[in-house]
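Students often ask why we bother encoding 3D structure as a string. The short answer is that it lets us treat folding as translation between two languages. Here is a chain of 280 residues written in the first language.
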Amino acid sequence: MNKKSTPLELAGVTARQLILILITAMAIVPGYLMITGSLKTQEEFLNSPWSLPMNPNFQGYSAAWNDQFPTWFRNSLLVTVSAVLFTIVMAATAAWGFAHWKWRGRDTVLGLLISLMVVPPVVLLIPLFTLGAKLGWISTFRMLILVYIGLMLPFSIYLLTNFFRAIPVSLIEAAEIDGASDFRTFRSVVLPLSGPPLITLTIVNLLWAWNELLLALVFLQSDEKKSLMVGITGFQSRYSLSIPTIMAGMTIATLPLFITYIFGQRYFITGLTAGSVKGE
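And here it is in the second language, the structure alphabet:
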């Protein structure tokens, strides 16, 4: 027989549900205003920002896309995809070294690497800008890509190291008995088992790199090199009186992230909890 819940337990459950509803509303409402606002005229939005668009208007999308939006979109795609791919490859190989090879100072180096996650990017802004200016790399994609890789690596290595350590040792030993080298074991045994954390890392890093503004604003100063978020920032000042145009630009910028998450969500939670149980 199920035990009856006490009033205190019921109050706790109700409070948790209300908090979840509130958080969900806080996440959904901005998206609702963004999408509905992009389909209204300026007058309709100002008169009734919360209502649904009775006669959808796509002039905002036309105005947004006819600006430099396609160029900004391509720039963001190039920087984000390049940075994330290099980060995943480097993080996977480094994490395999931390998880599988035993060498003096391994845990110390890993601890120092993990500690870099707490360093805010703004602290590194001036030194990185000075270095980029000396190299002549300001307003170049390679400088921003290298900075993104450096900022994404610590968390990526940490997550993958924990997962690799959770892989049963018997699988690794079986591969070694069969004569597989470390690289062959990594490629043929470890990587095929690492789909969920790799996809999770890809999604998390894509979200961060695509939405990042401060570093892109500093390092990509040329109009033709601006990222999407930097472009939209200036876009808002130029179209400050055209709310549908701004909303349309933001909606288009959000679509790639939404599609990426939809296709990868089945692996997302699995990847976040990967490595929580150590392999035998």
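Translate back mentally: The chain has two domains: 8-47, 68-272. Keep this in mind for the problem set.
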